[in-house]
Amino acid sequence: MKQILIFIFSTLFLSSIAVADLYEVTNINATDSLNVRSASRVSSPIISSLPYNAKQIVVLTSIRNRGNRWSKISWNDKEGWVNAYYLRQQTATAFQTFQCSGTEPFWALRITANNTVDYSSADMGNFKAPISLQKVPSGRPLNMGIRVTKAVTANHSAFIVTHEEACNDGMSEINYSYSITALIDGNIVLEGCCN
């Protein structure tokens, strides 16, 4: 039964998650903003603007139109088109640190701002792995708080999905803001809570 659950989690759920890179505004002066347009043309109406320092922008699609590369973006529940010249991919350090834990078996996992995953368990021991992937689901608003993280070493791996939702560890009175599902070393599925 355990193998069936691991197979379902790793092949159906995790492989079906499409993830998108996060972007931030670049090449804009601090006294200016980036126009968001209704279509991928300079002549299209401006429907919104992004501050010069806007971050956590999801690029839904990109096209080339009349020599310019345009990206359809989602930011703060708004969608529109921007000239892709003014966007650059954010680094993983833009994500917050998570401290996660679970029971049966007792384990702890920390996703750090310095791009590592620290895992400890009484049953499996400890490992630290560099983050090789950290993204949000494609086409989903960022305020849904879903994040996919992958960390791998020569001997260990962690594929992690954190989701912003109320969570309780079932043993304490503590309420957490995030839930976690993790696949550790390709064969152990863990569920727990994070803050």
Concise synopsis of the structure shown:
The chain has 195 residues and is mainly beta. It is 6% helix and 55% strand.
Order of strands across the main sheet:
9-10-11-12-13-14-15-16
How many individual helices?
A: 1
Oligomer: single chain
Could you give a short account of the major beta sheet?
8 strands, antiparallel, barrel
Number of domains: 2
Helix percentage range: under 10%
Provide tags for this entry.
about 5% helix, mainly beta, about 200 residues, disordered N terminus, 2 domains, 5-stranded antiparallel sheet
3D structure, described in words:
- With 195 residues, the chain is mainly beta.
- The protein folds into 2 domains: 22-89, SH3 type barrels, CATH 2.30.30; 92-194.
- Helices cover 6% and strands 55% of the residues.
- The protein has one helix spanning 2-13; strands at residues 19-20, 22-25, 33-37, 46-51, 57-65, 68-75, 78-83, 87-89, 98-102, 107-111, 116-121, 125-137, 147-152, 157-168, 175-184, 188-194.
- The strands form 3 sheets. The protein has an 8-stranded antiparallel barrel. Strands 7-6-5-2-8 form a 5-stranded antiparallel beta sheet, with no helix packed on it. Strands 3-4 form a two-stranded antiparallel ribbon.
- A hairpin with a 4-residue loop joins strand 13 (147-152) and strand 14 (157-168).
- Mean pLDDT is 81; it is low at 1-19.
